[in-house]
Structures are given as C-alpha cells and as structure tokens.
Amino acid sequence: MSEPSPKDPAPAVDAESEPRPGRTRKPIGWSTIIIAALVAVSAALVWRRDGTSGVLEILTHDLSLFGGILPRVLAGCLLGAFISEILPHEKVSRSLGPKSGLMGLLIGTAFGAILPGGPFTAYPVASALLAVGADFGATIAMVVSWTLIGYGRAVAWEIPIMGTDFTLWRIVISLPLPVLAGALGRFVYVRLYPKPAAKDDET
C-alpha cells in the first residue's frame, strides 16, 4: 500500500459542520442568583405581612402548579431530544442551513405556522433544529411564525373570539414578519460569528 504524499494538502474541515460557538450552560448563573434573591426578598415581605401561613399557602399553590407543568416540560424536552436524533442532519442543513437562502426562511415560516402545541413543544423543537443543522435565521423565522401565525391558537381562540375577518387579515399582515426577522437574525449572526478563515487564505 502506498503512503499518502506529504505534498497533498489535508482535507479542509467544513466550517458548517463545526459546532456553533456558544457559551456552556451553567446550572447556576447570574440570572438564577438574581431570581433567587428576588424570591427571598418577596418571601420575606410576605412573611412580614401574612406570617408563616401566608408563605406556606403560596408554596403549596406553586408546588401544585409546578407538578402540573413538569410533565409538559419533560415531554417537550424529550420531544426535542428525539427530533434531534431522528432528523437527517444533511437534509436539515441543506433546507434550513446558512446556504438555504430565502427558501430556508420560507420553510421555517411555514413550519412554525403549522407547528401545534404551546411553548413546551415549540422551543424544544427549535432547539433540536439548531442542533441538527438549521441556522439562526430559519429558526428565528420558525419561532416568530409560530408566535404570530400559529394556526392552533387562531382556530381555537382567535376565530371564535375575534371573528374570521380579523383573524385572516391579522395573519396576512403578519406573513412577511417571520421572513424579515429571520433575514435580520441571519445577518446579525454572520457578523457576530464570522466563519474562520481557511488555511489557504492565511498563507
């Protein structure tokens, strides 16, 4: 077997296949510390006004609320984890990646408009799309479209309360906003995290 020639250049690493730059999530950060301090101050004020019984009543109510929300959070996180394993990375990167152009923004907008469920579904799905190759622009378009156009809320709440004419005009007016938000997100992301220069360019 012949050995590879040292003159042959090493294959270039695709910048898009590298993980996106980002900070490692810490279990306790400044936001957690600030919220904990606000909780402690609020609890002290309630205890001063209503005594121990007032604090225990709030804790009991919040624990009951947390118990009802926890299964939804768990289901949403599991959904995002499973989606990130099931979706083909190459196809997602080609359809929703940095080189998808306007079509990627339109696909993200359409997907967000038909995505059912609440935030426990939408945000884990958006996180999964980022993990499998979608860029910031297409993901932003999806989230904004889910927020503004989502058919589930329109059918269940908006049409019965506000009427069909209002809902249709509101959706028509909102249609370009996810695409514009996605394009702006993609523009900002490229400037915050520019692609590393190739080795050939440095020499």
UniProtKB/TrEMBL annotation:
Annotated compartments: Cell membrane
Topology with respect to the bilayer: Multi-pass membrane protein
Residue ranges of the TM segments: 28-47, 59-83, 103-122, 129-149, 169-189
Top-level taxon in the UniProt lineage: Bacteria
Pfam family, one: ArsP_1
GO cellular component: plasma membrane
Presence of keyword Transmembrane helix: yes
Chief localisation class: membrane
UniProt keyword annotations, A-Z: Cell membrane, Membrane, Transmembrane, Transmembrane helix
Organism, as annotated: Bradyrhizobium centrolobii
Protein name: Permease
Chain positions covered by the region annotation Disordered: 1-24
Alphabetical list of InterPro entries matching this protein: DUF318 (IPR005524)
Family from the record: Belongs to the UPF0718 family.
